[in-house]
Amino acid sequence: MSDTTAGTTTGAARQSGMRFLRDNLREYGILIALIAIMAFFQFATGGILLKPVNLTNLILQNSYIVIMAVGMLLVIVAGHIDLSVGSVCGFIGALAAVMIVQWNVNFVLASILCLAFGAAIGAAQGYWIAYHRIPSFIVTLAGMLVFKGLALWLLAGQSVGPFPPTFQLIASGFVPDLFGVGKPNVLSLVVGVGLAVLMVALAVRNRRRQQANGTLEEPFGLFVAKYAIIFVALVYMSWLMASFRGLPNVFIVMALLIALYSFVTNRMTIGRRIYAIGGNEKAAKLSGIRTERLVFLAFVNMGMLAGLAGLIFAARLNTATPKAGLGFELDVIAAVFIGGASMAGGVGTVIGAVIGAFIMGVMNNGMSILGVGIDYQQVIKGLVLLAAVIFDVYNKNRG
């Protein structure tokens, strides 16, 4: 009798797990997709993909896309879109070059002013979108053209550089090993393991809170499997990078931004209200949410993060060029949609957007290593984006 009861309980738990996995296929699917894509390219490239030097380059090459994807997530969750982020990124990089290289402004002051200018650009666009109800597609399309032209005017059609070595450290510097070991970089390894432990600890704490509130849905087995994979992946990546030059400075910047915006979207009232706007703006407004102000702030935040991405991109190239930021908006928007955000708004996570950005980055990197032409790369990336959108529509219809 006890064996039968145990078997029944196990079968019920298995059915519950499968049902939860099916209902949350969007969240788990992108993580599985990233693992599968990395495994494929690791095999296809003969192990080159996960070599320490290539892994470091992968992070450096995608840092600005990840940073803008975090901001774009909030815009898309609120039911809007920003097509100007690539041009704003390029314009802010050009502004930084003119201030630092030509006007000899201190790079710290110049960076602060550039971030403020990026926020001001977001505010200018957000004002017309939020308070005058002009479609975000039109406003930001105009912004894309305007700031592309302004960057060309500001640089007079020429590249401006190089930057001071201290400014370049934003994108090309690494966390120094305070323990003096060298290889592996012990401090980088400790930081990486610490971040992995912190992420798991916060997840366990959140699960206990859900259990206490009676809102727990995720089966224990799936929870353990998911965070075991994430923990092992983070520790392994930290070890690989520590054996090369350590963690890049920009990795720390990304980690802090991901942690901050995950906290804002999951734990703060303003985050939940942005999701409510995307889910049903009229209902959100009737419930007392100041929808115009939150949409405005989402675009201000997007402008500031596009400015930060512009600084990092310019520092990485060590020069500002008129074509900087060209097509970035497509990669950023694709990353957010591939990461599970809904076209209708109200759905999406910060972690999903980051995973989506790395899916795009791994594909770009892997195909480049394999010698796939840029023409085929664009076709494949477009098909992946189309598949993600079709998957979103299918899930919505099925639900």
Structure description:
The chain has helices at residues 2-23, 25-44, 52-77, 85-102, 107-132, 136-154, 165-172, 186-213, 220-242, 249-267, 269-279, 281-286, 291-317, 328-338, 350-369, 374-398. By secondary structure, it is mainly alpha-helical. It starts with a helix and ends with a helix. The chain is globular, with a radius of gyration of 22 Å. The chain is 77% helix and 0% strand. It has 16 helices and no strands.
Chain-averaged pLDDT: 86
Span from first to last CA?
Answer: 38 Å
- The arrangement of helices and strands along the chain is HHHHHHHHHHHHHHHH
Helical element count? Answer: 16
Instruction: Tell me the radius of gyration.
Output: 22 Å
Helix content: over 70%
Overall strand count: 0
Contiguous low-pLDDT stretches (5 residues minimum) are none
Assembly level: single chain
- Shape estimate: globular
**Structure classification:** mainly alpha
Q: Which sheet architecture does the biggest sheet show?
A: none
